[in-house]
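pasting for ref
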Amino acid sequence: MRLAGKVALISGGARGMGAVEARLFATEGARVVLGDILDAEGRQIESEIRAAGGEALYVHLDVTSEADWERAVSAAVSRFGKLDVLVNNAGIGGPGRVEDTTLEAWNRVMTVNSTGVFLGTKAAIPALRAAGGGSIVNISSQLGLVGVELTSPQYQASKGAVRLLTKATAIQYAKEKIRVNSVHPGPIVTPMTQARRADPDIYAKMVSRIPLGRYGEAEEVAYGVLYLASDESSFVTGSELVIDGGWTAQ
C-alpha cells in the first residue's frame, strides 16, 4: 500500500474532494484524521472508513481558527503517534466582479482559502519535523495559475496565494525533509460546483474551456494528491501538479 504506516490530516474532509482523498488514503494504508465544520458529514466519513477496515478520526476544524488547527494536529499525534502528511484541502468559492465584491466577501474567501492554508501549515510543521519529515499538499486551482471572468477575484487571488505560499514553505523547510507541493484542479464534480453546473449557460462556458470536454471527477484529483503524499514523490517539492483537463495548456 502506498501510504502504509503514515498518518495524514486532511482539512475539508467531510465531503467533495476531501472525503474522496480521505477514503483513498485509508485504502492505501494511511491512518486518517479528517477535519471540517460539517460535523455530521465528517463523522459519517469516519464511520465509512472504519467500516471498510481503515483507521480514521474526525475532528471539528474551522481552518480560520489557529486554536482549531492546534487541536487537530494534537489529536492526530495523540491518537496515532505522529503526523506525516497534511492536505490543506478546505476551500470556498463564488462568482463576482471586482467592483461588485464587498470587503466582507473578499476577506471571507481569503481567510478560508489562503490564511487557512497558512495556519494549517504552521500548526503541522512541528509535528512533521518530529516525525523526521513529511509532505504537505496544498489544494490550489487552475485559477491559481490563470485568470478567468467567470469566478470571483478573491477566489483567484486566494488560490494564487496558495501557490506562492507553497513554494516559500518548500524552500524554507527542504533541509528538514518536509516537502510542500500544490495541486491545481480544474472544474471538478463536487458539491461546491453543483449550483454552477446546474446553470446551462455557465456549464457550457466552463466546459468550452476544457480541451477534454468535461468536468473532472474528485477521484482524478485524489490520485494526484496521493502521489504527492507518498514516498513516490520523494524528490518533488515546491512544484505544481495541474489536473485541469487541459485548461491551462491553451
